[in-house]
Write a structure and sequence with these properties.
single chain, alpha/beta, two-stranded antiparallel ribbon, 32% helix, globular
């Protein structure tokens, strides 16, 4: 695990002042471009959740789709998408959540999950936790049980995990 953590940290690209001045963006695209590393991350997550009785992987737009699709495929599970408003073609249910200045919303299909489903929520990065907290609310509204929320990267200094109310796992942390 430590070796994988070090490989991920060595591959992530820091982009200063993106998307605005003062923020150092953690760019995971070099991780995704390294097929061996991406495969090792997927295998790590698969091993972690192999005996958890998962029924669904829930991927958060948009980089959560990348990790979620790879993991769902590796585990033989379906992938449920959580997206911004107006992006899903079927009937949706959504949750609004607060941002620093305003609000946002995430949605998923009304038939995406059922009562008793055992769910892993996955995304590339945990920062303040707002989007993931809203996703957790969506899963719970559908009667799903959140086994864990998983991330490739956590910005621990932002304390996002405190907003989620469920177990949290991050492969690497800053």
């Amino acid at each position: 695990m430590r070796e994988l953590d070090e490989r991920v940290k060595a591959t992530i690209r820091d982009i200063p002042d993106f998307p605005k001045v003062g923020i150092v963006f953690k760019d995971i695209t070099p991780v995704l471009q390294d097929g061996a590393l991406f495969g090792d991350i997927t295998a790590h997550f698969k091993a972690r959740y192999a005996d958890q009785g998962l029924t669904h992987i829930v991927g958060i737009e948009s980089r959560g789709f990348v990790f979620g699709a790879a993991l769902a495929n590796a585990m033989g599970l379906g992938l449920t998408l959580v997206r911004k408003p107006g992006k899903l073609p079927y009937k949706t249910v959504g949750v609004d959540y607060a941002l620093e200045y305003g609000t946002d919303r995430v949605e998923m299909h009304t038939d995406a999950l059922g009562a008793g489903d055992r769910v892993l929520i996955i995304d590339d990065l945990l920062a303040t936790g707002g989007t993931c907290a809203a996703t957790c609310e969506l899963v719970r509204t559908h009667g799903g049980h959140i086994v864990e929320c998983a991330f490739a990267i956590e910005l621990a200094f932002l304390h996002g995990r405190e907003r989620l109310g469920c177990p949290v796992y991050a492969l690497t942390s800053y």
